[in-house]
Amino acid sequence: MIRNLTKFSTVVIFLTIFTIYVVLSFKPPTKEEQMDKYNKMNQEVEPFRKNLTECARQVRASMVDVENFLKRIPQSTMQGKCFVACILRRNNIIKNNKISEENLLEVNRAVYGEDGEVMSRLKSAIDECYKAVEMIFEICEYASVFNDCMHMKMEHILDKVTMERRMAALGQMTSDPDVWTDDEDDHLKLVKDEL
């Protein structure tokens, strides 16, 4: 009983120290940093928003088709599938009626940075999704099936990478917060950032 109480006390102390560390290490961004981030986001989002609007008009996609695209729900109508093809074309992911692996990787690099593991797994997902559309010749169906495949593969890949990194970071930490090293503090920050 006393041993269990001691373990419980250790966990409570650890959580208290961890909470204090998180609270004290938090630095809110300055107004300038917030404005820079907002302006950068607007610059990146505006062309995408414009493409959504123009493609929806061009293929006469319904609001449901647009919502399905944004929510990553597979398209069920031909207009929805052609809407996906239009978006991928306008973002240069489809060139000459084929997926451009180079452009797709570049778009994802903008999102995930130079994370070698994610990019390696992304290339693997692209190869698998190429096989899924290999015999599809109608461009709307081709784009829609490829898009759905990539969403499924990448969601699984990113969940797996995130979980592996969390477990690795936690596994490398000592359970005694009084003897944490700078490396373990970095691991703790990694875990905090991914949570």
Major sheet: arrangement of strands: 1-2
Number of strands: 2
User: What is the tally of helical segments?
Assistant: 8
**What is the H-and-E element order?**
HHHHEEHHHH
What is the CATH architecture annotation of the domain at 51-165? Orthogonal Bundle
Straight-line N-to-C gap: 33 Å
Chain-averaged pLDDT? 78
- What is the overall silhouette? extended
Structural class, please? mainly alpha
Strand content: under 5%
Provide the CATH top-level class of the domain at 51-165.
Mainly Alpha
Q: Largest sheet at a glance? A: 2 strands, antiparallel
Point out poorly predicted stretches: none
Query: What portion of residues is helical?
Result: over 70%
CATH superfamily of the domain at 51-165: Pheromone/general odorant binding protein domain
The rounded Rg comes to 23 Å
The CATH topology label of the domain at 51-165 is: Recoverin, domain 1
Topology:
Elements (H helix, E strand, L loop, with lengths): L1 H24 L5 H29 L3 H8 L7 H13 L3 E2 L2 E2 L1 H12 L3 H18 L5 H33 L10 H13 L1
Antiparallel strand pairs: 1-2
Report what the structure shows:
This protein has a domain at 51-165: Pheromone/general odorant binding protein domain (Recoverin, domain 1). It is built from 8 helices and 2 strands; from the N terminus they run ααααββαααα. It has 195 residues and is mostly helical.
Task: Summarize it.
This protein has 195 residues and is mainly alpha-helical.
List keywords for this structure.
single chain; 195 residues; mainly alpha; Recoverin, domain 1; two-stranded antiparallel sheet; 8 helices; extended
